[in-house]
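User: I'll paste a sequence; please echo it back and then give the predicted structure.

Assistant: Echoing your sequence first, then the prediction.
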Amino acid sequence: MKASTRTLTLAALLAAPGLVLAPVPAAAQARAPAAAQAPAPDGNYSIIGAETVHGKPVADVQAGWPSTTFGYTFSLSPTSDLSLRFGLLYGFEGTTTSQFGLSFYAPLRFELGRGESIRTLLHVDPGVRFYTTQPSIFGFQFPVGLVFALPRRDGLEVGIGLDMNMTLLVSGNFAPRFVFGPALGPYFEYQVNPQVTVGLNTRFGAAIDAYSSEGPIPGGVATNFAFTAQLLLGYRP
């Protein structure tokens, strides 16, 4: 009887380490996928697309019509960012009318959703602009828009943007003037490597100019074709 008891006790002691150690590999395996799925702090991002910048800030230049703009974008949260942008204008409110000017604005972007088939982003672009007419024109801009993108594949993001452009011009001829209009167009953005991003951003729409009277000329509304076509070059240090 004593021999049998010692045998059972020895068997229990030998089995105990296995009972303690067996769950450890399982727990480690359960934690591994979670670590693999955690987003990298400096992973995918976009400047004109549907993914906000997170991690390190990004500097960029966008050149084409109706302006060349220089920007610096930094993260506010995992799903929002803020840009500071300076622009050289040479198209009046996006129309084919040439006019030199300057702009400064601060776009805010918010990711609305990251679905398996589509991603959505909301942006608002408040700022000021100035045209070197005689007399000069000064105004406040406050466009809003949505961006819809397909999931990024091999560094390439493709999508479409829908904007409502709005500018209130408070000085110059026929002021105050409210210039507004919808614009729709495709874009693409390609992340060459973690530091360099290139792309093309387009919008096509209308600029509806609701202007005040000026002397004997009564106020009214004029509608013109307006568009944006800009090449993008971004760099993250």
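The domain at 58-235 is CATH 2.40.128 (Lipocalin). Residues 90 and 100 are 4 Å apart (CA to CA).
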